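Dear support,

I submitted the protein below through the web form. The confirmation email said the job was done, but the results page showed an empty box. After a refresh the structure appeared. I'm attaching both so you can tell me whether what I see now is the final result or a partial one.
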Amino acid sequence: MVAPGRWSTLLAPRILTMAGWSTIGTAAGANLPAQGPPPRAPVEFAVEQRVRDRWLHGRQQPRFTRFAESRTWLLGDSLRTSTSGERRLYLRLGPFADGRDSAYIEIDRDGRVAQLAASLRPPQRGMAVLPGDSARYARFRLFESGRLTLPETRLWDLTPSFRAAGGRAGTQWTDTLERVATHERYRQTLRGVRASTLLGDTTVGGRRLWIVRDSARVRYEERWLEEERTLGTDVTVTRAANGVIRGRHFYDPELGIFRARSDTTVLAGEAVLRYPDRYPGVRTFRTPARYERYREWDVYDQAGYTARQTALRAAANRSSGGMVMAPSTSLERRLANGDTVVRDSVLAEGLRSDDPEHREGLFRLLQQWAARDARTRARFDSLRIASGDSTYLYHWLEQRAYSPGQPTTVPELRSMLRFMEDPALPFAFNQSRDPLFENLRQALTQAPPAVSPRPAWPCTPDACRLLADQWRTAREPRLRELGLVALVTLEPARWADTVLARAAAGSTFLEPAAMLVRGVGATWPAASKVAMVSPNATWQAWADWMSGPNASYAAARAAASASLGLPAPRPEPRVRFEGSHAVAIRFFQARTGRDVIAELRRGLEAADSDSARLVFGTMLQGLGELRLTDDEMVAHFRSGEPGRVALAQRSLIQMFWRDRRATPADSATTLAILDRLASLVLEGGAPWRSLDGRPAPGRQGPELHATPGRRSVFLLADSLPAALRDKWKDRVSVVTSAEWRDRPLTDAGVLYTLSGVRRVGRFVVVGVSSQERMSRRQGEAPQLFAAGTTYYLMELNGEWVIVSADAWVT
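What the results page shows now:
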């Protein structure tokens, strides 16, 4: 027996005896149908595959390009052997709640694959709602961690041939590889010759296994479709590369598959991006490409598979926290506490490292725990870009292209133009071409310079003009149309007709700008996208303009819910006024000269119903043209009319948060309200009465994920007046923020924090938030959550009543 050396040390602990896996030597096994698996049986074996791989296009540098990592499972239903020695292996390609991808492999007497087939499970019911959803979902199912993975390709290396019948070390044999996998217009092929050498044998779990080394010189080709959203079409990407696959495995001669395998792949070739023929100009782009992959497989029986899944879940639970992030290591705590020595050390190591995973992990630490302000974040960004990481520069430019309140500058735009002028450049970095175009377009249409105050412009004046110049000078069609978007948002009356004409001619890219020109305010998929209504329209017409339903979308959504056994979706609200509505009205006024706002004022003045007042009032409120006085809000709330109450609630929120008219309430009012709130949260005391008679929200504090024990409930002293601290200290643990911070994050506890009480006239606002810590074992990551409730109260006949409330929970 040849000593297996390091391979047995690494792999033997993961190889389990395949108890319960029987080989069947009967005529029934020989006469199985040509396709279709037998009835589903318990898992007889499971193959875990772990992959780390990356494609490097011509401009990418290895030190900046991370590997994609994935873990997948092949589940064996049965292995059947005919009397003549052929075998058929039935598999499921992973566990799925909505079905399974199934496969089978026929293996001849010499260990060669005679037939291999795999089929995708039917699409999940209810997946398609929007146009194109079916195609997007189908495309998504064919990729794993960003790489094309057709079902058959996951089986290509599962059953290696073995032709060393005598079991003599040094025996060699070769196999011709001819693997082809197709699905509609997707294709993967692997061709070449594999040479295998028997190194010896070993015994694991009482079973004799052969140690085999193999090396294959191959040519790999793949083709897939990639959605180019800014063109409304699919483009074709192909990659072809030659290279070597080197592997080693423990082969089980009784079962005909390996028990464990590890291999590496290095390929070099070319990637090609092709646009449809109808797209103008030369639309084929080429770049060198290199592929690197590291794979490992392990085989388990049913008990081993269950144990492995349990271990993986436990590991994930130990390392995962709640929705609230908190430093859990000494390094994270030092960064979070502002230790500049540690920060600069981590930064220097990140810039110096040639390991892309290590480098990315260090910068993630800095961004999460040390980037306390915009200046620090900008410093980190500039140093990463200066180090030569052009892919990071591309993603940084994507974010800058849509940064409300931070207009794009001329130098930044010139950097963006380099990528937008030539699709070959982002392709050479293996990046999508869409985001820069989409983000700049969104920034221009959501804050058009023609109707936005200068600080809110999406670009500086010089940058906006430079972008507008692309309409006349750019060769890339999308960049020319982006220039037209800049022109129409700068000069609506002059360029509106050009936008409408080109959109009517089929320009997908210009459709958002065309909707803005037409005066569409409801731009989301569920809306009917009604254009600006005629002058002096009825409130019903304006309601339809605000949020008229898209009949096709509503029907598809209802059908999807029904197919999944879910309740019918709630109808879209008919009174829904958002930023897109305000922009549409002001832009339409600038383009046509029509005074839409004056029409809305007249509509409100002439309103003869609660619905009319609600519609016109909501739009004027959203435009900042209607502000109710304190007395008017009181009258609206007391009226009980839903439309008037809704207007008052919006005005109340605007008064406290946007207009900033509130001041701290007097001490007596503050003490009474906070005492009532503490009683409500900590002891389930009676809440304030709701003016509309509905049950008051938050009857026992913000929503929690676990019921806290009495000793684990805390009240933040910093948020309490001295009199309340004295009153509650014997009924609950009152702690300072420093004491709460010093308490271990893994000890269960809930900290309630009461807000201050702020007042405007007869209204006050007060809130309570909770920080929840779950009990965790030593070594497990903290699991933290948070929640909060805000109450808006009105003084009515000497009593505080709830007129509005909102809540949130992580």
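Response: this is the final, complete result; the empty box was a page-load delay. The longest strand covers residues 207-228.
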